[in-house]
């Protein structure tokens, strides 16, 4: 192994933060858990667990319907969570923040609803080559249904989008552009602010899959001037089943409902149904009340720490890990963009990523191995899969050292 620079000192108190996450203090296979699968799901702090438990213990009831005490309490808590989301991403109004089950539902909602109204035969939808399947398939199905065409922004060998190619794809047939803020398989941070501004020059709205950005650095939807933005709670320290799709009111008001049923109507008769305004129009049925109240608590948690310092610390950790793994003979880093967040994908010569994942698990190290729901990325880099370590602000340099040592052992076993 080549020598690796020491990590710079940082004011971030990682041990104090780790104590907030009970799951991190357990042992796995007789070893301390080293949780490095945050891009799949991050862990949940005690405050979020407590808030969910409080709802279940003291407030459990349906929202927006009952006039009774519990229902009113639950409704207040649910709507307070929406307000927190609004402030967290700096939306103009809380009503622009629609609760969904997660990013996948967010993409499906917009592809289906915006697509039904605004996409027709001969139109074009621009996606990027590094998208998660969740941000490809809904658009692909829409394109097939409407006779529209999917155009793909290519990337270079480092895993960066080729911006000139993107600009060449935009034209008067383009109806929407959809790109991830941060790639879950490569860690690339895309220059979405500039990309959005370019799309707007053509009058084209822009959708951002923010699943991998909101847990890692502050996001301001007004500053980005993004038209739609979605993220999942379970990747940002909240429970599964929570999530948001933000949309500018000017679009959401014009879009038809995605799902229909209870809770989203103004009047119903057998002749005609009229719909409630946003956000209810897009929230048919009983939502994930406990989970979204939990999402509000996760935002409270992020507000209680120095999130900007957390982001800086995490970035340093990623750089440290990149240097450390790059120094190991036989390891190839997949995704070497200049701007990266959280994700370190790699392969080891002659070792299948699933074997890497299984062997590391025996040392208590949780990483992800597979195609990461990004098969076009795997095709581009000509690999069947990668192993992926992904970091959060509670990970430590020592965990990176343990990861590097374990990888070295994998290499020795397969030598
Ligand atoms: N987009 C990206 C970039 C992701 O990383 C993920 C989750 N891996 C998704 C979309 C889908 O998110 P979810 O499964 O929470 O709906």
Report on this structure.
The structure is a single chain. It is built from 14 helices and 17 strands. It is α/β, with parallel strands linked by helices. It folds into two domains: 9-43 and 306-413, Aspartate Aminotransferase, domain 1, CATH 3.90.1150.10; 49-303, Type I PLP-dependent aspartate aminotransferase-like (Major domain) (Aspartate Aminotransferase, domain 2), CATH 3.40.640.10. The strands form five sheets. The protein has a seven-stranded mixed sheet, with helices on both faces. Strands 13-14-17-16 form a four-stranded antiparallel sheet, with helices on one face. It is globular, with a radius of gyration of 22 Å. The structure holds 4'-deoxy-4'-aminopyridoxal-5'-phosphate. Residues 39, 102-104, 132, 134-135, 180, 184, 209, 211-212, 232, 234, 373 line the site of 4'-deoxy-4'-aminopyridoxal-5'-phosphate.
In the CATH hierarchy, the architecture of the largest domain is 3-Layer(aba) Sandwich
Question: Judging from the principal axes of the Cα atoms, what is the shape?
Answer: globular
- Give the total of beta strands: 17
Q: State the fourth-level CATH superfamily of the largest domain.
A: Type I PLP-dependent aspartate aminotransferase-like (Major domain)
| CATH-assigned fold name of the largest domain | Aspartate Aminotransferase, domain 2
Quickly give the structural class.
Answer: alpha/beta
Count of discrete structural domains: 2
Helix content: 25-40%
Q: Largest sheet, if any? A: 7 strands, mixed
């Amino acid at each position: 192994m080549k020598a690796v620079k020491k990590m710079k000192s940082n004011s971030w108190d990682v041990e104090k933060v780790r104590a907030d996450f009970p799951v991190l203090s357990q042992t796995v296979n007789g070893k301390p858990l080293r949780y490095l699968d945050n891009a799949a799901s991050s862990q949940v702090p005690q405050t979020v667990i407590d808030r969910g438990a409080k709802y279940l213990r003291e407030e459990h009831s349906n929202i927006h319907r009952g006039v009774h005490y519990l229902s009113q309490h639950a409704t207040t808590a649910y709507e307070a969570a929406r307000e927190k989301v609004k402030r967290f991403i700096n939306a103009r109004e809380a009503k622009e923040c629609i609760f969904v089950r997660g990013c996948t539902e967010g993409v499906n909602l917009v592809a289906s609803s915006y697509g039904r109204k605004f996409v027709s035969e001969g139109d074009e939808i621009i996606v990027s080559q590094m998208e998660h399947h969740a941000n490809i398939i809904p658009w692909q199905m829409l394109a097939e249904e409407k006779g529209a065409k999917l155009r793909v922004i290519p990337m270079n060998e480092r895993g960066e989008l080729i911006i000139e190619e993107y600009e060449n794809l935009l034209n008067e047939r383009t109806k929407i552009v959809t790109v991830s803020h941060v790639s879950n398989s490569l860690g690339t941070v895309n220059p979405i602010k500039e990309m959005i501004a370019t799309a707007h020059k053509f009058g084209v709205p822009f959708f951002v899959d923010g699943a991998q950005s909101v847990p890692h650095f502050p996001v301001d939807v007004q500053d980005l001037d993004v038209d739609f933005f979605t993220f999942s709670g379970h990747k940002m320290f909240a429970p599964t089943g929570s999530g948001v799709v933000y949309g500018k009111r000017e679009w959401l008001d014009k879009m038809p409902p995605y799902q229909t049923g209870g809770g989203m109507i103004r009047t119903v008769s057998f002749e005609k149904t009229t719909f409630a305004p946003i956000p209810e129009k897009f929230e048919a049925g009983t939502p994930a009340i406990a989970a979204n109240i939990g999402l509000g608590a996760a935002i409270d948690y992020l507000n209680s720490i120095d999130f900007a310092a957390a982001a800086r610390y995490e970035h340093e950790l990623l750089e440290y890990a990149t240097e450390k793994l790059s120094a190991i003979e036989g390891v190839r880093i997949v995704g070497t963009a200049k701007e990266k967040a959280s994700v370190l994908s790699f392969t080891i010569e002659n070792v299948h990523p699933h074997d890497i994942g299984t062997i590391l698990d025996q040392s208590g190290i949780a990483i992800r191995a597979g195609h990461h729901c990004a098969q076009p990325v795997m095709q581009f880099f000509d690999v069947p899969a990668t192993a992926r370590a992904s970091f959060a602000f509670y990970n430590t340099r020592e965990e990176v050292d343990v990861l590097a040592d374990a990888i070295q052992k994998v290499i020795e076993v397969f030598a």
